Amino acid sequence: MTAKFFEERGDQSVVKAEIVQKYFAAWANIVLPATREFGGGKIAYIDLYAGPGRYKDGAASTPLLVLQKAIESPKISEVLLALFNDMDQNNTQTLQAEINGLPGIEKLKHPPIVNCNPVDKDAEEYFAKTRLMPSFTFLDPFGYKGLSLKLVNGVIKDWGCDCVFFFNYNRINLGISNPMVEDHMAALFGSARAAELKARVERTKPDLREQMILEELANALKEMGGTHVLPFRFRNDKGRLTHHLVFVSKSFVGYRVMKEIMASASSKSEQGVASFAYSPADISMPLLFELARPLDDLEGMLRQEYAGKTKSMLDIYEQHSIGRPYLSRNYKEVLKNMEDAGAVTVRDPAGKARKSGTFADRLLVTFPKADK
Fold first, then answer.
1. By CB count within 10 A, which of 48, 88, 251, 372 is most buried?
2. Burial track 210-226 (b if 16+ CB lie within 10 A, e otherwise)
3. Which Pfam families match (predicted)?
């Protein structure tokens, strides 16, 4: 199955790889200043389902793209330790050969390591007990075997450690009601949550079923310490959901960066608010989807949540944006419009003159009290 997966590269694979390599580069530059204190002068990129390195058409897959990013940066190439794994020996041999032939690979101070091991209970235990250097981990199983809460928790538990994993929604959606894969669902959601979810999703409409499954996944991840969870949806050319790319972090800084990256990879937006989804149908059949006015919704939420309060723009963004599709620029646009309409008052605690059309993070926004 894995071999078939790498036979040809679809546009969704391109988007997925773009998200991962962009975040890797941004994450590396964020954690670099603290590598001596937390990582012994090293950072790691970990891919436990690495594959052969290239698709059948010759296009590079994620491992080679990440290494290319590292080679391009003298600072990253000096500290990066790349750890690749695949269960298929043919894949690991091919990947090693591709890495060896990568132009500029000698610029990496630490040669990439390629292993051939199953992703199983032993892997869970290793990451649970081992203190990791700052690491960005990518988990992309073809289905869901080996993917577990314990594994994700193991790779994000230490400082500077973030994870992105492939969530095969179609297969997991079927698996929740299948007693043959009960153990796999328990590993992914927790036994009690998986059993409860199975009972709840029966006879539920598909759209609501997706929301239930994602909500429970996010809750399970947050309970174990992954306080910031961000899913990106992939849909087929008919607009139907196929899978997700799920980001998990303990840091708002990482969450903010990944949000910007996923927003830019989205195939549509309304009022400047990204869909956090990619689908060819968004481009070829835009009238399939209802019109929305998400910035209007944001203004209403801010009026209600912050009634009678004074908060800085940055505090509002950090507190309110988690679990919502809005970026910093969306908040600034809405708050500026509210200021122009006299719906809020704004002052600069630094007492500086404001440039026309700007809305700095430090600005204090006072919301009127709610009408009784």
1. 48
2. beebbebbbebbeebeb
3. GMT-wHTH (PF22560)
d(CA 204, CA 56): 39
Distance of CA 281 to the CA centre of its chain: 22
Is 152 in the same domain as 29? yes
Which amino acid makes up residue 211?
Q
CATH code where residue 150 lies: 3.40.50.150
Mention every residue, 6+ apart, whose C-beta is less than 8 A from residue 274. 262, 263, 264, 266, 268, 325, 327
Residue with tokens 């190439």: 77
- The answer to whether residues 223 and 328 belong to one domain is no
In contact, 86 and 41? CB cutoff 8 Å: no
Tokens matching residue 81: 């330790």
Q: What is the 8-class DSSP label of residue 8? A: S
Q: What's the predicted TM-score (pTM) here?
A: 0.88
Q: Who has greater pLDDT, 245 or 142?
A: 245
| pLDDT band with cut points at 50, 70 and 90 for residue 364 | very high
CA 119, CA 82: separation in Å to the nearest integer? Answer: 17
In a domain, residue 83? The reply is: yes
pLDDT tens string 54-84: 988 888 999 999 999 999 999 999 999 999 9
| Identity of the residue numbered 99 | I
372 domain-assigned: no
Please determine, for residue 230, whether its predicted confidence score (pLDDT) is greater than 80: yes
Domain containing 147: what range?
A: 2-287
C-alpha 325/C-alpha 322 separation (Å) is: 8
pLDDT in tens, 153-196: 999 999 999 999 999 888 888 888 888 889 989 998 989 999 99
C-alpha span between 37 and 7 (Å, rounded) = 43
Tell me which residue of 214, 337, 232 sits closest to 19, measured CA to CA: 232
SS3 242: strand
371 occurs within a structural domain? no
- Verify that 138 and 271 share a domain, yes or no: yes
- What is the tally of structural domains in the chain? 2
| Token reading at 174 | 């079927």
Residue 203's pLDDT is what?
77
